[in-house]
């Protein structure tokens, strides 16, 4: 089962007053590099971090992240 978690973070940041990666990182307690790696699909966030990110954007988890097999 080789799948990938994809996300809408870049688009959501743009729609959220053009939030920077740094601003999002500070809001959820990680580094900017972590947000960058998640956006680039090089790193899958923990479930806790995924929820924190979705809360920042006030979106359901499945509108921020999805799994593609």
Which properties best describe this structure?
single chain, 69 residues, mainly alpha, two-stranded antiparallel sheet, 54% helix
How would you characterize this protein structure?
- This protein is mostly helical and 69 residues long.
- Strands 1-2 form a two-stranded antiparallel sheet.
- The model has no long low-confidence stretch (mean pLDDT 96).
- The protein has a single domain (4-57), classed as 434 Repressor (Amino-terminal Domain), CATH 1.10.260.
- α2 (21-28) crosses α3.
- The protein has five helices and two strands.
- It has helices at 9-15, 21-28, 32-39, 47-56, 61-64, and strands at 4-7, 65-68.
The helix tally amounts to 5
Strand order of the largest sheet: 1-2
The CATH class designation is Mainly Alpha
What is the helix fraction of residues, given as a range? 40-55%
Rounded to the nearest angstrom, the radius of gyration is: 11 Å
State the shape.
globular
Give the CATH H-level superfamily: lambda repressor-like DNA-binding domains
Number of strands: 2
């Amino acid at each position: 089962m080789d799948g990938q978690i994809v996300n809408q973070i870049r688009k959501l940041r743009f729609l959220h007053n053009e939030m920077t990666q740094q601003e999002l990182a500070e809001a959820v307690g990680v580094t900017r590099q972590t947000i960058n790696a998640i956006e680039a699909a090089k790193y899958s966030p923990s479930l806790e971090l995924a929820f924190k990110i979705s809360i920042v954007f006030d979106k359901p988890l499945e509108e921020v992240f999805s799994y593609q097999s």
